[in-house]
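Researcher: Re-running this chain for the archive, since the previous output was lost when a drive failed. Same request as before.
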Amino acid sequence: MSTLTDAKPVVSPWSPFGYRAFALLWVATLVSNIGTWMHDVGAGWLMTTLNSSPAVVTLVQAATTLPFFLFALLAGALADRLDKRHMLITINLVLFGVISVLALLVWQEQMTPVLLILFTFVIGTGAAFMAPAWQAVVPQLIPRETLKPAIALNSMGINISRAIGPALAGILIAGVGLAAPFALNAATHLVIIAALVFWRPEAAPKRTHHGSILSEMATGLRHVRYNGPMLATLVRAVAFFVFASAYWSLLPLIARGAADGGSELYGMLMALIGAGAVTGALVLPRLTRKLTSNQTVQLGTLGTAAALAVLALSAEAFALMAAAFLGGLSWIAVLTSFNVSAQLALPDWVRARGLAVFLMGFFGSMALGSILWGQIATLTSVPVALLVAATGLIAGMILTRKVEVGQAESLDLSSANVWPQAPVLDPGSSADQPAMVTVEYRIAEADRAGFAAALQTFAKERLRNGATRWDLHQSVEDPELWIESFHLPSWAEHLEQHDRVTRHDADLQDQVRAFDIRESGPLVRHFVVPRP
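Model: Regenerated structure tokens:
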């Protein structure tokens, strides 16, 4: 599945925000997502014909989502260092080939449960490598002030496709055969490739320094660990998605067990989830003017719990369709709030990696939930699993109520460019050598407690912008003298650190520097580990 979020705005009267590049990619992802939802319905229904055990059926959802947990961070690190457009074209070409082979095997009735799960895992892996790059594209396409409506419009596009794709899949499965949704999904990847070939973004400035891919992945993880607003978003997302995944993974079995159930009802339920989400996207702008992001998430969580309860307690098609619509309405309110919260919490330099961590939490929770609810449904029943999930949603919301979503909405995370140019290394030194920076402060006795508290807060800036270790020491012989030190995996990482300081970071730095009693301010020194 594709999602949009980076490129310079190009004004055009026919695009949603007057930006031609955004409109082009939005339409392409709409078509691609219709294919993805047809594929998901086809895979879920195909598995019920091959093996109707709840534990096996839910493995399809798990195989779709698990690759995001396993590979999203690697994909984010690659997206932050490679040309995103070329990366996306390559992945879509590979997926076109893989899905075409899958469609052929289904048409020839050669598919088995194990083969379906393996193909689903491979396709999910391709989607996992695409997602961070797509997510990192929207802020390039549009200015920050239109980010919220752009994400809402993107979510609307995904859910328009969710309304169309499943219904179309149900019709195709009944009228043409199970291979049809897969074949059309393969074709939609050609649409994405054509749009990416046509899109010509301005060339991004090339990074002159690169650490190893593992080092850059670790930097992304550290950034999220010490980015308070992002970490809060991740915690709340996990608490929601583990339980909300229940109706996604069990929906084929809900449809099969309903009165007059079948593939048509399954497609209709998926379509109504999409219709509810589209309705939610239209209502959301008005809702967010009255409610905070945190309150919107709470309201959406209650709606999801109510939908799960109805799905558990009724087998009538009308009640199930109403619950599906409510589930989609609630889903989009929560998902958009989390997405906006994550986007606004991340500076550009680490956006793909930060969003990759968010996707890991999202899809990891969905994969874990899918396996969990399948096992619970096998040991008890589908209704019991749904009721347990509804109860867990409410409990999770209560337990995480103090971890608020949307904390970064007022922060300025644009680059500040306030650090002076770093010194030049000696000719015999290498940019790969580990580095350490020390900052010497002179602090009056009356200000020591306030200074130490302010610097402890500021330490998170060092750690989220590349440092692997941070320390603060006070001189025994000269109590006015304080030394802050932070270590970096390489000198190249420190050079990049100069460009990573945001305006919010600069404000925190000014507060710390104000404690120094010297007119010249703190004294900065740089060190590298000598070569043997």
